[in-house]
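note to self — DONT lose this again. spent like an hour looking for the file last time. sequence + predicted structure for the chain T wanted, 329 res
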Amino acid sequence: MKKNIAVIAGGNSSEFPVSIRSAEQIAGELDPDKYDVYKIIIKGTNWIIEDEKTGQIPVNKDDFSCNTPTGKLKFDCALITIHGTPGEDGKLQGYFESLNIPYTTSGILSSSLTFNKKATKLFLKPFGILSPASIYLYKGELIKTETIIDKLGLPVFVKPNQSGSSFGVTKADNEATLEKAINHAFEEGDEIIIEEFIEGSEITCGLLKAGSKEIIFPLCEIVSKNEFFDYEAKYTPSKAEEIVPARISADKTRECQSLASYIYSAVDCKGIVRIDFILSGDKFYFLEVNTIPGMSAESIIPKMARKYGISLKELYTLVIDDAFIRYQT
């Protein structure tokens, strides 16, 4: 009997449209012989199922079901594709665990930890994981730009502490642009992180661990034609080169893959994850963990998967099977 899979998209952050594109791509790749696929869009308290046959139907949040013209529809597994809150920060994970519904991402604690850049860096520091020096600010806190510059120098990257797709991120080259960057980052949330600029190559590693099976994709080297890999560069093909495999030595490739695998396990990730680094000289500096990386046609993970030699249909079958196994155990 085919399983009912809920592909969950949308969310409450600026990444809403990115999530919708990811969900459309994933829904089209799932094996129709194994799954009946339904797209569920979440925006605040408005949860609806979008189906060609039934149209738009509200989701009953009491048991995560829908009343369709043919009867009550329940879901066997939640495939979460929301970038940002509530999909990437542990909220939906807690909801599905309370209902005993398998889901495809990292758990509550891992999702909450990795969504917070500050907490992740602090957690990984005792493990010897290098990361750029940084300062954290909270909305309403006294901001002294000269103190920031004294500690981190210029340029710096100013980022919301909990966001993705480079929303709210600015590279600040002087004191005036630093103040504007801080205000811009606070538009995305109440906490921001300011990181020193490290010259080097941006390298990202995608991977998946499912039971005893580990898939580590070929590395991707990101070369932005903008000042940095911002939202436009991420989602406009002409604005960045995403080179797979990365143009680094075999030894450095293995080192990065091993480091990514270590971080994946250290923060207890599940499902498909992408971990970003800067390679400066001979050292890798950790940037962040993406527990729900983009899966739209222009995203990096699909490119990595093709180079690895696995189809997205095979990849997501593996992810869904692992979700069921984890639920049973």
